[in-house]
Specification:
single chain, alpha+beta, D-amino Acid Aminotransferase, Chain A, domain 1, D-amino Acid Aminotransferase, Chain A, domain 2, 16 strands, 36% helix, globular, binds pyridoxal-5'-phosphate
């Protein structure tokens, strides 16, 4: 069994014992808000921003988790601290928050202690995610437009980070059929580029950084960080409507998300972007990201990739 500890409904329990009921609204409806934060040098990056977004998501979803933001932050730090010693000092972490409405009322007799929201905070060593991802920093990614569209804000606002993600799953399945390693970017019902299943999109045209306006997307913490870094570097930034045309005519394109920060796209819809390598604006931003995080997370990911087979073999022995 892993040594990791999870915060689960008011208690710290071994990871294997943190189980959500089959009667939970999360399982019944995908009715769950969540967040994903990472650490750099074992310190959470922009935790407060992630928790602000979590509480905003809960507000839209009409879930009262029963904790204040300060309490959630304190418990998060305690969860992380309880897990740090299970890995070497050079391990960074993913911190996952999941909050649902709890079990459905019709099943209340199965819950003699009453119905409460389900809250979990778990920490997972980033070696698996980033070790598996490392090669993308070198090769870049291939972005395609799938048939599946984004869910627009007038249906369910994607600004709330929620677990109803079948449309992202469909988009990923469709992209996989277009070729191995293809990353789908969903269009909104007006035909504008929205976002990928777990990332925001940027492109560069004539030295200007462009990103979809925030109407029909999750407003990523990494997206905001990228915009802020670009402004600090004097790179002009604009949030605007972008379509397939703008994608095809871009000089550079890249994706942003919490785990990997940013990765460049080599192709869009099968056509090479620029010279296919990371462009000058991307490279500037990547360096600024590393400086802000206080770590060369690209080198770290390559190091994790080398260590991953051993790590997994050892993890399998203790499980
Ligand atoms: C749909 C979607 N868009 C964008 C993002 C990127 O957000 P962040 O930069 O906060 O990780 C995510 C992250 O999971 C996501 O699920």
């Amino acid at each position: 069994m892993s040594q990791r500890t999870v915060y689960f409904n008011g208690q710290f329990v071994p990871e294997a014992e943190a189980r959500v009921s089959i009667f939970d609204s999360a399982l019944m409806f995908g009715d769950m808000a969540f967040e994903m934060t990472r650490t750099y040098n074992r310190r959470p990056f922009k935790l407060r921003e992630h928790l602000d977004r979590l509480f905003d998501s809960l507000r839209l979803m009409e879930i009262d988790c029963g904790l204040t933001l300060d309490e959630m932050e304190r418990i998060t730090m305690e969860t992380l601290e309880r897990n740090l010693s299970t890995e070497p000092d050079d391990m960074d972490w993913q911190i996952m928050h999941d909050v649902s409405r709890g079990p459905l009322g019709v099943y209340q007799t199965a819950f003699p202690n009453g119905l409460k929201p389900t809250i979990s905070i778990n920490c997972w060593p980033l070696i698996t995610h980033m070790g598996g991802f490392a090669a993308n920093y070198t090769s870049g990614v291939h972005i395609v437009i799938p048939a599946q569209q984004a869910v627009p804000a007038h249906l369910i606002d994607p600004k709330a980070k929620n677990r109803s993600r079948l449309h992202y799953q469909m988009a990923s399945l469709q992209a996989a059929r277009m070729g191995a390693g293809r990353w789908p970017v969903l269009l909104d019902p007006d035909g504008f580029i929205a976002e990928g299943p777990g990332w925001n999109l940027f492109l560069v045209k004539n030295g200007e950084l462009l990103t979809p306006e925030p109407r029909n997307i999750l407003q990523g913490v990494s997206r905001a960080t990228t915009i802020e870094l670009a402004r600090n570097l004097g790179i002009p930034v604009r949030e605007t409507n972008l379509g397939r045309y703008e994608g095809l005519c871009a000089d550079e394109m890249f994706c942003t998300a919490t785990t990997y920060a940013l990765v460049h796209a080599t192709t869009f819809e099968g056509q090479t972007i620029g010279d296919g390598g990371p462009g000058p604006v991307f490279r500037q931003l990547l360096e600024a990201w590393k400086e802000q995080g206080g770590i060369d997370f690209v080198a770290q990911a390559h190091d994790y990739a080398e260590r991953l087979p051993n790590w997994e073999a050892q993890a399998a022995q203790v499980t």
